[in-house]
Amino acid sequence: MGKIAHFYNKPQFLQTWLTALPLQEDVTEGEGVYAQLCAYIEKNNPAVLGKNYSNLPKIISIFAEILGTDFVDAELTTRITNILNQMKKLPAQVMQQLINTFPQGTARDKIVALFANLPAATNTAGGGGGGGGGSATGSSPAKSNN
């Protein structure tokens, strides 16, 4: 579905694709899907980020589910970490509102721990694009270096 969404570049396809994530079984396909998700975020794709960044909770929950699994290699982990570090630079009130979108208990605790334990952002040299350089004002969660 992600390849179709990418080919046609239609917001409704991207929205449907995003709601189908995270993948549960196909690790090989998953690596490409999550690299594509990172690329959309790094390019501030409005269909993926949602109106007023309404898809950030979904994106964060996807990242929380896949980090540390076979779905992400070292390069993808770095890209995701960089994206999350950019989100972490949002104003405290915005971050708290974002955290509050998750239900009390395990889900919220997992997201809070994810942000609390993020390593510092690193530069991703080479072919993957890479996050970094996003705005600390909250106008964009990530920005491509490309």
Describe the structure.
With 146 residues, this protein is mainly α. The protein has one domain (2-116). The chain is 56% helix and 0% strand. It contains eight helices and no strands. Helix 1 (2-8) packs antiparallel against helix 2 (11-19). The longest helix is centred in the N-terminal third of the chain and has 16 residues, at 27-42. The two termini are 25 Å apart.
Helix percentage: 55-70%
Shape: globular
Structural domain tally: 1
Largest sheet: none
pLDDT averaged over residues? 81
Order of helices and strands: HHHHHHHH
Tally of strands: 0
Report how far apart the termini are. Answer: 25 Å
Number of helices: 8
Q: Unreliable stretches, pLDDT < 50, 5 or more residues?
A: 125-140, 142-146
Q: What would you report as the Rg, rounded to the nearest angstrom?
A: 14 Å
Strand content: under 5%
Structural class: mainly alpha
Would you kindly provide a brief summary of this structure?
The chain is 56% helix and 0% strand. With 146 residues, it is mainly alpha-helical. It has one domain.
Write the layout of secondary structure elements.
Blueprint: H1 2-8, H2 11-19, H3 27-42, H4 46-49, H5 56-66, H6 74-88, H7 92-100, H8 106-116
